[in-house]
Amino acid sequence: MKRIVAACICCSVLLLGISGYSQQANPQKLNLKQCIETGIANNFDVWQRQLQAESDKANWKQVKLNIFPDLNASAGHSFNQGRSIDPYTNSPVTQSFNSSNYGVNSNVVLFNGFAIQNNIKQNSLAYRAATMELQQEKDNLTVNIILTYLQVLSNTDLVEQAKNQMVLSGKQVERLEVLNKEGAIRPSAFSDLKGQYAGDRVSIINAENALETSKINLSRLMNVPYNKDMELEKIGPESFAAIYETSSAGIYETALKQLAMIKAVDLRQQSAGKGVKVAKGQLFPRLTFGVGVSTSFSSVAFQSQYLNTVYSPTSDSAIVSNVKYPVYRFHDNFTTSSKIPYMDQLDNNLYTSFGFSLSIPLFNSLAQRNRIKQAKINLKNAEVTASYTRTQLSRDIDLAYINMTSAADRYKVLLEQVNALNESFKAAEILFQQGVGNSVDYLTVKNNLDRANINLIIAKYDYVLRIKILDYYQGKQLW
After folding, report:
1. Can you tell me the distance from the alpha carbon of 397 to that of 224, in angstroms, rounded to the nearest whole number?
2. Which of 378, 172, 129 is CA-nearest to residue 273?
3. How far apart are alpha carbons 50 and 56 in whole angstroms?
4. What is the distance, to the nearest Å, from the Cα of residue 372 to the centroid of all Cα atoms in its chain?
5. What is the chain's alpha carbon radius of gyration, rounded to the nearest angstrom?
6. What's the CA gap between 190 and 193, in Å, rounded?
7. Which of 179, 188, 217, 369 is the most buried (most CB within 10 A)?
8. CA distance 165 to 443
């Protein structure tokens, strides 16, 4: 039932997220924050982590309650025929009768090797680890959305660049078409430009396909329907000019303190350590204290009312000093027997008890010893995972830092290259229009400039992505 309710809640959240997205996506551009919030609200893996955290929280609350006494009540009613035992008189009877019994008992564990206390701590750490893993899932999704968001922006700029290339080639084709009809140029020059124009049109088709593919990928991460008219806000130019001053060593030290991934593996390791103590605690004697109250009723329970006591002779005699004397006896007289009332029986049969119970584990096929070994294996696995995670994090940060510096250098060089090729293209365009330069030289310079512009667009968004990744390792706000 809990899973069904959780699934209904998840579906409701998904429908609300999709409807909210559809209402916002059309009238205005989406910014990075909106994309991330929508993705986190709708992502299936995030829901799973959320439900796991809630489950661990429920387990933690339950083990905390285990330290309190339990309280149980029982009630029973039976119909008896033939020879049986009357629960009221505890004597055999051969008749049909009804009987009832009621009881209340409570037990509390006084000592069990601190297993309960360590179990509380173990589940508390497991719950905290689950919350960190939930945050880690959100962080991973955030990074993926940022990557795809930047891909959409990059592909949007590439489409615009391809269209600009086609417009420029189209103008040259129109100009040369007139000159070719007049016989003022060589036919090969006109055909060269027509080929370039067709190539630019193909570039637009490829760029638009890449753009729509990246939009679909972003929609998938946000778990919303694909919208061809999706528009994203541009990133400010200050992001491209940012200078990252923190060293990789400083980033790593900050990541150890801020990153949810590290906190999660550390908490899992601590939880596994408490699991070993829980298993060892089961080797100690278990001391419990219990109290109980019970009573019963029988339909064949009868009672007689006392009337008087009479003194009457008997047929027996006794001889004292050779003198024979008759023997008298006392005889109690009662009225006819009547059934004992229900409530009177419950009151008369009331029974209370309390006591201590000590259970000492002597031999159980070494099951508990093996549980301790298994708990130690789990602890060792958690320690190895924590160590490996730190090592992997250090390598990832070093690689990300190198990629960031390389992206920054590449962006600067490409910016200089575009500026230089712009000057070369202007000169080649003037010469070509004046009939001094040939089409081969013109197209060579133009293609070099086009490739440089495309590389510059890719490089600047790659640089922003590398910065965002380093910010993520430091726990900084990513939007």
Report:
1. 32
2. 378
3. 10
4. 28
5. 44
6. 5
7. 217
8. 11
> Domain spanning 2-67+112-284+361-473: which CATH class is it, in words?
mainly alpha
Residue 257, C-beta contacts closer than 8 angstroms, at least 6 positions apart: none
Quick one: which of 322, 157, 170 has its CA closest to 235?
Answer: 157
pLDDT of the chain along its 479 residues, tens only? Answer: 444 444 444 444 444 444 444 444 444 689 999 999 999 999 999 999 999 999 999 999 999 999 999 999 999 998 888 887 777 677 787 878 888 999 999 999 999 999 999 999 999 999 999 999 999 999 999 999 999 999 999 999 999 999 998 998 898 888 888 888 888 778 888 898 889 999 999 999 999 999 999 999 999 999 999 999 999 998 876 666 567 788 899 999 999 999 999 999 999 999 999 999 999 999 999 999 999 999 999 888 777 667 778 777 887 888 888 888 888 788 777 666 778 888 988 898 899 999 999 999 988 888 999 999 999 999 999 999 999 999 999 999 999 999 999 999 999 999 999 999 999 999 988 888 887 778 888 888 988 999 999 999 999 899 988 998 998 998 887 76
Number of H helices, E strands in the chain: 10, 10
Question: Going by C-beta distance under 8 Å and a sequence separation of 6 or more, which residues neighbour residue 160?
Answer: none
Sequence-separated contacts (24+) of 359-367 with Cβ below 8 Å: 359/285, 359/286, 359/287, 359/288, 360/285, 360/286, 361/282, 361/283, 361/285, 361/286
User: What is the reported pTM?
Assistant: 0.78
Phi, psi of 323 (to 5 degrees): -115, 130
Measured between alpha carbons, how far is 257 from 82 in angstroms, rounded to an integer? 77
Burial grade of 123 (CB within 10 A; 0-12, 13-18, 19 or more) = buried
Task: Pull the structure tokens for residue 13.
Answer: 């959240």
Q: Is the dihedral of CA 33, 35, 41, 45 positive or negative?
A: negative
Tracing tokens 């019963």 back to the chain, one arrives at: 296
- Supply φ then ψ for residue 360, to 5 degrees: -115, 115
Check: CB of residue 469 under 8 Å from CB of residue 246: no
Distance in angstroms between the alpha carbons of the first and the last residue of the chain: 39
Residue 29, CA distances (Å) to 120, 159, 233, 444 in order: 49, 18, 6, 38
**Token pair of 470, please?**
């380093």
Class of residue 122 by CB neighbours under 10 A (exposed 0-12, middle 13-18, buried 19+): buried
DSSP string, 170-207: HHHHHHHHHHHHHT-S-HHHHHHHHHHHHHHHHHHHHH
